[in-house]
Design goal:
- The structure is a single chain.
- The chain is of the alpha+beta class.
- The chain has a domain of 61 residues: Orthogonal Bundle (Transferase Creatine Kinase, Chain A, domain 1), CATH 1.10.135.
- It has twelve helices and ten strands.
- The strands form two sheets. An eight-stranded antiparallel sheet has the order 2-3-4-5-1-8-10-9. A two-stranded antiparallel sheet has the order 6-7.
- A hairpin with a 5-residue loop joins strand 4 and strand 5.
- The longest helix is centred in the last third of the chain and has 25 residues.
- The N and C termini lie far apart (59 Å).
- The chain binds adenosine-5'-diphosphate and arginine (ARG).
């Protein structure tokens, strides 16, 4: 049985050299593992085997997978994040001393000649005492949601947060109907139907949809916590404005409140920092983005030119509905620094500011050259 799958991996590896998990899979290392560990590692690779066009091609399924399968994951991380193998990640939310910061430390988009934009910063977290989403049972998902609902009651009771929880779980006292769910997705508050993501489906992460899925939203709608998406939690601040520090600082303090709730213990790896399902998010779990109109760079109706310019600047371009969605009709795209690992949280928000400045200069240049 295992020899069939190894033969399949070897064949796929040759045909799909861009699939990082397949490329880093070493049959000799695999042969040294116990039967139980073999099955666990193969489970991590399932999404990349079923979707050989994957760029990453694997997801961790237990909080300890990165450490238990270090010879595999350290190669994956080095290749994707372009860092030396065996490097250690350091977390730090303090902006003081971060290179390239304006003298007053204020990351104000107005200084770049930009109007108020929609700014968002999210960080993923997983609870230490549950399997990661790829290995959860339906009961685990429902139990985790219930545990989080008790934690949200504490936020709801705090005047600076308030708000409510919206559940997608049938029969949950906070459950919402399809119309309300669609409305929240359109507001960029709630996540999309995970069943439509073939990578998450093959990984087992989308299983049992919509059980155990939901979202806490603060009274002012600027602070959100997703429950049951690719990570147990995605903790998010979003607001319209020009000062990136506002959304970053709010996430920092809101995160501290969540982290302080008794009984919530997040999964961290000594070497790798924040543990996330996908190795692309490991380290900080953080993505800091703006929705920015780039009508000149997207004049052909696609993001190709913006992507080509953004990549060497260390930026990712997404559509206005998030990953794997099209750009806006007015040329609005989602821009975020690609790095999450071996970069600090503070460096990510500073990198967003610098990246926007560079991309805005390209957009303006494009206007002059036509
Ligand atoms: P994630 O950011 O968690 O990796 P997605 O890329 O799928 O996930 O985005 C999730 C949602 O957040 C989508 O609705 C997307 O449009 C929205 N979003 C991301 N960045 C912004 C932003 N700066 N302003 C408004 N909405 C945003
Ligand atoms: N599993 C997909 C791949 O390997 C997506 C990886 C990045 N996106 C994500 N949402 N984690 O290409």
């Amino acid at each position: 049985m295992t020899s069939n799958i190894i033969a399949k991996i070897k064949a796929l590896k040759a045909d799909w050299p861009g699939n990082i998990a397949l490329a880093c899979f070493d049959p000799d290392y695999f042969a040294t593992l116990s039967e139980n560990h073999k099955a666990r590692l193969l489970k991590c690779l399932n999404s990349g085997i079923e979707n050989p066009d994957s760029e990453m091609g694997c997801y961790a399924c237990q909080p300890s997978d990165y450490d238990d399968f270090k010879p595999f994951f350290s190669k994956v991380l080095a290749r994707y994040h372009k860092v030396p193998e065996g490097v250690r990640h350091v977390n730090d939310w303090n902006l003081k001393g971060v290179a390239g910061l304006p003298a007053d430390g204020v990351l104000d988009l107005a200084r770049l000649g930009l109007p108020a934009l929609s700014m968002r910063v999210r960080t993923g977290r997983n609870l230490r005492d549950f399997p990661l989403p790829g290995s959860m049972t339906r009961e685990d998902r429902i139990h985790l949601e219930q545990k989080m609902m008790a934690a949200f009651d504490k936020l709801i009771a705090m005047p600076e947060y308030g708000g409510r929880y919206y559940s997608l779980t049938p029969g949950n006292p906070c459950s919402i109907d399809d119309t309300k769910y669609r409305e929240l997705v359109d507001e960029h508050i709630m996540f999309k139907n995970m069943d439509n993501d073939r990578y998450l489906t093959a990984a087992g992460i989308a299983a049992d949809w919509p059980h155990g899925r939901g979202c806490y939203v603060s009274a002012d709608r600027g602070f959100t916590i997703w429950v049951g998406e690719e990570d147990h939690l995605r903790i998010i601040c979003m607001q319209r404005g020009t000062i990136l520090n506002e959304v970053f600082d709010r996430l920092k303090s809101a995160f501290a409140v969540v982290e302080g709730v008794e009984g919530l213990e997040f999964a961290y790896s000594v070497d790798y920092g924040v543990v996330t399902s996908c190795p692309t998010n490991l380290g900080t779990g953080m993505r800091a983005s703006v929705h920015i109109p780039l009508p000149n760079l997207t004049a052909d109706g696609t993001d190709s030119r913006a992507v080509a310019l953004a990549r060497p600047l260390g930026l990712s371009v997404r559509g206005v509905g998030g990953e794997h969605t099209p750009i806006g009709a007015d040329g609005t795209v989602d821009i975020s620094p690609s790095a999450r690992f071996c970069i600090t949280e503070a460096e990510i928000v500073a990198a967003l500011y610098r990246g926007i400045a560079l991309l805005k200069a390209e957009e303006d240049k494009c206007n002059l050259t036509g």
